[in-house]
Records
---
Amino acid sequence: MVKTGVFIRIPLLISVPLSLNFPYMNRFAILLLAVVYGNLLFAQTNTDKKIGKSVDSLLKLMTLEEKIGQMNQYNGPWAATGPLTNDDNLLDQVKTGKVGSMLNVTGVKRTRELQELALQSRLKIPLLFGQDVIHGFRTIFPIPLGEAASWDLKAMEDGARVAATEASAAGVHWTFAPMVDIARDPRWGRVMEGAGEDTYLGSLIAKARVKGFQGTGFGDTSAVMACAKHFAAYGAAVGGRDYNSVDMSLRQLHETYLPPFKAAVEAGAATFMNSFNDINGIPATGNKYIQRDILKRDWKFKGFVVSDWGSIGEMINHGYSKDSKEAGMQAANAGSDMDMESRSYTKYLAELVKEGKVKMAVIDDAVRRILRKKFEMGLFTDPYKFSNEKREQTQWNNLQHRVVARDMAKKSIVLLKNEKQVLPISKQTGSIALIGPFVKAKSDHLGFWSYDWPDDSTRIVSLWEGVKAKVSPSTKMLYAKGCGITELDKTGFAEAVATARKADYVILTIGETRDMSGEAKSRSSIQLPGVQEELVKEIVALGKPTVVMISAGRPLVFNWTADHAPAILYTWWLGTEAGNAMADVLFGDYNPSGKLPMSFPRTEGQIPIYYNHYNTGRPAKNDSDRHYRSAYTDLSIYPKYAFGHGLSYSNFDYSDITLSAPSFTAAQSLTATVTLTNKSTRPGTETVQLYIRDITGSVVRPVKELKGFQQVYLKEGESKVISFTLTANDLRFYNDQLQYIYEPGEFKLFIGSSSDMVKEVGFELK
Ligand code: BGC
């Protein structure tokens, strides 16, 4: 999605974690804290009650049409992120209270103008402005999948905070993020928008992002409402084809796909968006089980649910609704509170209420939820509080935001391979050839779901610029593009080879264009596009010290490169600060620490491939053991790169695991300890990963499940003792009755640097 606009910035809010160290606090301090906390809770409950009363009083004044208006969301006339329906009288509808929210309207000027119209309506209910602020707004951050590779929750929270600060200063109240769909199929274009394949990691990231977007709470002008999407299981689309059906057991749904959504509720996400797919035959948008029973009843979600773009109307195509009226009825009754761009609610809800097909209580519940958020955001006190030109101007060029983006970007890069320590490159290198289509690229670093600004050419840092700022003045930089990203033309190869031949070192950049991964960007082949891998072959054949950098929105297949290039950095799409972050890693100013949040397949035929699969009755032990095994006869059983893989310029050594006891009971806990040593001459950060396996269960359990991780910084030669404490709660799973239980028995515990490089030990839960 490409957009234009005009914007701002806000000083970065640094959140100071309140760490409570009770043993060292005196009683008075504890008492004081209890009083303050009690008062805060009281104030919160009081505010909640007050808002509840205001919502109820307002609701009493509203006609049915005005209520339905609040449940209606339209796209603004300037940009669209879905198939647009044009309404000639859109502005009139806003003026007469027929619209509760708009999307794709940004900028103080536009939001103010539309808000002014909304305030001409009888009850003067302000509009909510929603926008896809997915990985930054003015300052673009790495794509969410790239950020997830950092495993750095604080950095992701800070990134979301910056995005919220910039977007809110441009009049945006509400971001349609985070996307928390678990995704195990890299053909699906939207893997770029999420946190990858793992439920545990995805849940923590969901929380971090919600916290970042919503900041210190609504009412603060830098807080935007978060929206956990797409509810639910959108990432499990059959064949990785966007919008496709999802068919899975309820156990799988609860265990793998729902937890990140639950985590978002626990973090206070203000809103949810439902999804385009059907789940076991019922479209998510008309799915009462997930929206009413799970989300609103079981999880006690107090916010509202917006449909996905046109997803109410699309239930007709699904073959679930006979027409738009029936779709409106099914969606409203199932708990979809707001209709994004289907126009079913605005056209038919009143009739449906009169016919008794949708109860007034359903409408009132939806409208209450929506109005509550408008009150919480402070829009009834000041409908223009987010439309402040001065703030917009201030935030437009907040340099601190770029510092946060660069930090996030360098942490997102994953070092896949580094033979003979080809990396890092010395800043004093005599000559470096930069080859490939991404060397001077700018907007391709932004990726899908990002914004184009008129001054992008000066703001986005290309690799060329990043390297130039890093190397010694005497280093000669040479350049040849070699080929395009998707084009088949090889006429540039000769120049590229000649250029590389002249240099002491080669940096070769390849990847996907920014719109090859994203919504509606599923690919059946996830090989490197065009002739890029052929270019790699020619350059690597020169035998020079060479690093290949891959910029992409998904795990790609690049076997030749993986097997022959001396060093590989996977850089995703890194955003505004791409070139600087790449140079930080290339030249060793930042020692890479990223770890893959998704398994990388060897070929598309291996998909879906994920580390936490079941064992099956005939598991292959290794690649020589494939006969009559659950394996392909013509392919390794292993992914090309495993979940959690990522190297460093340091060498980390793991001791064997020590357990506090060989067994424990549900009333006790178990501590697992390893000593981690940095056996290199460089300081670095390692992400120590803990996995478990439940050997025998009342339902089969995955061969490994991530249950914890710690990011540990070690100076050269330094050792640290790393401990993890587990309780029976960490061993829970959904049984065949959908009860979330733990079962006594034997387990394995693994600790290591990736899902395939671990030490292991057994323990028992008594
Ligand atoms: C996407 C959503 C997005 C919405 C509004 C839809 O097509 O699936 O993720 O938030 O459009 O742009």
Note: Residues 81-82, 103, 132, 176, 229, 308-309, 519 surround beta-D-glucopyranose (CB under 6 Å).
---
Amino acid sequence: MLKIGCHLSSAKGFLAMGQEIVRLGGNTFQFFTRNPRGSKAKALDQEGIAAYLAFAEAHGLFPALAHAPYTLNACAARPEVLEFARETMADDLARLEYLPGSMYNFHPGSHVGQGTDTGVRRIAALLNAILREEQHTTVLLETMAGKGSEVGGRFEELRAILEQVELKHRVGVCLDTCHVYDGGYDIVDGLEAVLEEFDRVIGLNRLRAVHLNDSMNPMGSHKDRHQKLGEGAIGMEAVGRIVNHPALRELPFYLETPNDLPGYAREIAAVQAVYREEEG
Ligand code: FE
Ligand code: FE
Ligand code: ZN
């Protein structure tokens, strides 16, 4: 069964997000755990959660994907910036315990001149500091476009982080189609080869979610500019191959395209139209 949704604003709480995604025709959604600027404002309202969980159960929604504020830098050079990332992520993980089955996606970070190896070491050290055996949330490293000094633009960099994480069963990867294409992986004309490479370097068993976005720029641009599905360099034919690929078709897909809500409803319907339900 196709698991599809989009990024929603968490301003009105969980029940509102659940109701919104049902209106849009989806069955899962992504949300920021707090204002992307990283403020202390809470998004995970405990009371709202019970009503949301009942609603999700009644409507057959799949667990939502939490996204860390993208302004955090888990491999910052400045100690106070690093400490802020560690505290925020630890707090998010504690709150996510109230949302069964959720996953927590984050951008690995930017090494800001320290070099990739140092960046990788810092990210793994931060994860080792916050991951708890008794917590249930799977933390996902997002594949990045390789913009500036971003870590995670190459599969090898994500593998290096995963190798240094102690609680390996608590971490996975979220593949962003815009980012990998922008990072130089040809998912349009060589999807099979890219997934083979992902499997060889990271392991497809680590892949837990897909950000389904088109890209404004050609392959390898390293610019990270999302486009509406079918209106960018990736195109709707490639999107069809992506959502139907045996290695991906069971994963949840999240749209992060530049859209208003009616636009998301149209894109969700467009993905549903190209998805082949398996018989039997
Ligand atoms: Fe992201
Ligand atoms: Fe993304
Ligand atoms: Zn992006």
Note: The pocket of fe (iii) ion (ligand 2) is lined by residues 142, 176, 211, 256 (CB under 6 Å).
